[in-house]
Amino acid sequence: MTTASYSSGDVIADRRAGYARLLAADGELLAAADLMQQALELVPNWAAGWDLLGDYHDKSGDVAGAIAAWRHLEALDDAGVFGARLKLALHGASPAGEGTAVSYVEALFDQYAPKFENSLVGKLGYRVPEMLDDLVAEEMGRLGIAQFERGLDLGCGTGLMGQRLRGKVAYLEGIDISAAMIAETARKGIYDRLDKAELVAALNGRRADADLVTAADVFIYCGALQPVLAALVPALRPGGVVAFSLEAHDGEEAVFLRPSLRYAHGPSATRDAVVVAGLELLRFEAVVLRFDRGAPINGLLVVARKPPLDVHAANDGAGAGGDVAA
Question: For a disulfide at 20, which of 36, 57, 93, 263, Cβ 3.0-4.6 Å?
């Protein structure tokens, strides 16, 4: 399990950091940054302290101060648990890269696991597993699939997607980067097998044995889709189905990093990535994924198929993908 230490080990520094948090909560961000700076003079190698200082500077509008703090953080946090590279990239001070910030995502969900479902479903109106499952069920009917033989749920989390899939899949595997998430879902007995792994590494180690692969709000942490799909397609059997969600944007960029440190993908580039990966597009729909501070988070639901070995079957399925729904 990956954890981020939020204690400096120094009582006085921790006390000053605690006061800084209270000031920040009251909107006194400049005072919070000043007090945090004082704490760091006592413990200059405290990674979490530099992370907090960067956040206080950022929220106060002092971008230069935030970048300087996160540069310190980046030098101290070799594993990247605090996501300094992503925060610097967001402000144009570092390249974001195309892959997943593995240690950051792992630490994020290890800490989030106990309150994950209550926060996401209860407070944010999260319905992605339900919506993806509905699309999968519709395509099963259209393709004449009574049940999938072997399913793989990427980023399975606490099993919200797996619960929906369980009746549709004879043998269901879950993969997640977070040990805490795996522990949460293991208690539910949803999956036939659970593995803690980074998804591209896990996919690269598989043979073509899955006839369903799902990824509900997983690729939003991965950046570019091409490397993920290049690993995913070989893990699918011919005729196998993949269903995933993305956060979306209306700009020209293929993908960009949001202040949430999640990636948003462009619809046109997403379509292209699916086709280039060798998949047949079955469904491509614009939806509201959830709400954040009352504002809708727009996204895409994608269902695609690896062409079956039977050429005639492939031709029968061609053209099933519709336009982006409004």
Answer: 36
Domain that holds residue 56: 11-95
Number of domains in the chain: 2
Alpha carbon distance 177, 166 (integer Å) = 21
Q: Single out the residue of 55, 87, 51, 58 nearest to residue 261, CA to CA.
A: 87
pLDDT tens per residue, range 18-55: 999 999 999 999 999 999 999 999 999 999 999 999 99
- Please say whether the beta carbons of 212 and 137 come within 8 A: no
Quote the CA–CA distance of 125 and 119 in Å, as a whole number: 9
pTM given for the model: 0.83
Nearest to 265 by CA among 296, 323, 223: 223
Query: What are the start-end ranges of the H helices in 144-236?
Result: 160-165, 179-186, 199-204, 225-232
